[in-house]
Amino acid sequence: MSLKFTQEVQSARILSVGAYRPPRVVPNSEIVGRIDSTDEWIQQRTGIQTRHIASADESLIDMAEKSAVIAIKRAGLTAEDIDAVIFATISYPYQAPSAATELLVRLGNTKAAAFDISAACAGFCYGVALANDLVRNKTAKNVLVMGAEKLSDYTDPDDRATAFIFADGAGSVVIGPSQDIGIGPTVWGASAETREAILLEPSFLEFKNNPGKLDIGWPNITQQGQTVFRWAVYEIAPIALRALEAAGLTPDTLDAFIPHQANDRIIESLVKSMKLPDTVAVAHDIRTSGNTSSASIPLAMDALLAEMPNLHGKSALIIGFGAGLVYAGQVVELPPKPSN
Amino acid sequence: MALTVEVVLEGIKEIVVEVAGIDANIIAMDKKFTDDLDVDSLSMVEVVVAAEEKFGVKIPDDEVTKMATVGDAVNFIVANGK
To answer: Where exactly are the transmembrane stretches of this chain (chain A) (predicted)?
Structure first.
């Protein structure tokens, strides 16, 4: 039997990026009181000076919508031109239906294919990998890849290990057809034996099965900092170099490095381990945005392009890594300067 | 070279000097990484990974959390090294 399917492959690229950060800026001084810490300690451990935190009545989808509207406009498209939405998040408060379909309703295009992916801080790069394959195989033409998180809903303000790390925001890209290859091969995988290092628990069922038990608290993110740091630096650096090599580039020929904004110390260590030269622009959005999980790479991409407009159309290595533990990375051509 | 306490201590000194940028003379068996040598939990990860490479020994995460002093690290490496 032979079924009909297109034999042609269509190259894909990132057409545009859109970012939304909630207006409220929270400095370390607002956080330290409850965790017996200092601004200096937080900055030394993480590089974070301030972060954006959404208000109680600003939902994950409110943020995602604002980011998507910018990305679609910058791509020179309208919402009707988007035929698939991939939504990477760990903080949508419903199991079903998906965040992606709620976003479709907001965008006024309720007919596109839409689904969520759960790959935590690697979610955006997982989404880029999927979108690239969808466009290459002509399953979709223009794909919106959203990374959005309201992690403040799942962060314990009294947890000395995490209270100052996580934050809120939404970043997205439109991936569509292109003349040349604008997205390199994805290098991805997991270290699931270290699954316990980052958790978001308890589960819904623990609530259901233990009615009234007060010690079963609201699900919050917990993290074994040293284990994650060690994995992030010493396991991820060789994987990042593999993604670079797979795209046919070397540290000398790369223009920008936009890793998941987990911790500035991790970013600095990665740059050192990978022996990236000074000519590579490195994203440090963590310092003023905190760790926004799946949103961090597109947010950092948008910030880096605003700061260094000459990087439009240049190469960037993006790599996400986080709870699972899972990772994904690829070289992309940064979107062109928007004409509108 | 056999991994004696003296050999491992010298190696750890080199690593801590590199990671924390402190004077080698103040590093001794009884010094605490955090309080005496300015090695915080993340720098400790760098020390541990460098020590693993230097001495060909695996130091699990739960052992790292028990290593308060330089002596704790040296003794673990001597006991578990090849």
So the answer is: none
